[in-house]
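If I may wish for something, please walk me through the protein I am sending here so I can picture the backbone:
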Amino acid sequence: MFMPRPTVLSPVPLMPLVPSRQSFCALSLLLMLPVLQAAAADTHGHYPVTLDNCGTTVTFDTPPRRAVSIGQNTTEILLSLGLADRMAASAVWIGDVPENLKAANERVPRLSSGIPGFESVLGQRPDLVAAQFETDVGAQGRVARREQFAALGVPTYLSPTDCVGRLHGGDTNSDGARTKAFDMALVHREIQELADIFNVSERGHRLVDALRARESHAVAEAAGTPQDLSMVWWFSSAELAGDAWVAGQFGAPGYIMKALGAHNVIESREEWPAVSWERIAASDPDVIVLGRMTRRNFPADDVAQKIDFLEHDPVTREMSAVKHHRFIVLDAQAMNPTLRTVAGLETVADGLRALGLTGQRPPDEAP
């Protein structure tokens, strides 16, 4: 296991004579006593913390001090818990950090915006590697397998949102599939487990309570959505005119739609199935939700290019949502099961209200 180097304190001379080794040690212990007492009081009775995490038992005897987060949501949870000073680095980003987390995020080195190498992660001397996706740290991990980290004494934590009720491999695409619908309780669980690992459990409770209150408020504000309202959620595409990566039934978009009383025109257990525009157009959804991101792996990562395609393609331009410009632009992070799913619910609720599709008047409409 990687261990931090001990800190050597230089004694302040109390007299012109050079202190003996015995007096130096005694003075150092006296100077360190308040720190040691505070640390003992902070962790007394809390550790060890043992979790069953995605089929792997992990135990922590002390709070991590050099965590590496792989996945934007994992990073944002740790930052939201006030743990920037316990983070050695972050990796795997698809968008900007929220405004309220920017200052904290600037204190954490970014190892890579994409997939980091195994050696580069180890180079941070981590005492925890926390990952959002099993495809990064898992059985076929692009960074490494959990066993590889464990063999070097580095514990790992994987988001429950990517293993509970999830399938990877087999007949599914690279994004996997769900055996049961996602629920925000999985995000709440992740927040609380990470808070417990770092011995900041009360912060976890406060964050979960705040998310629950925001979700209840957003659902109440969107009351009156037509029961037959249909939607499709377009994340991106390898090619603009090719099959679109759209939301399946059981991911975060499905959770948001259910909460708001809408339904998905796509019937698939896959997280992000690739679907032809001919099939989507035949379903003629009432609203199209468009993913916004700062990454530019594909032309369709750009919202402006998405809209331009929809309005000019001979198939898509005939859809009623396109003719009436019923688009809702949403941060792509909120389209995945993340801390931002509640923000996604709020944005979609506001969008439906602005489009006149709820019982509430649009904000710019006079009573």
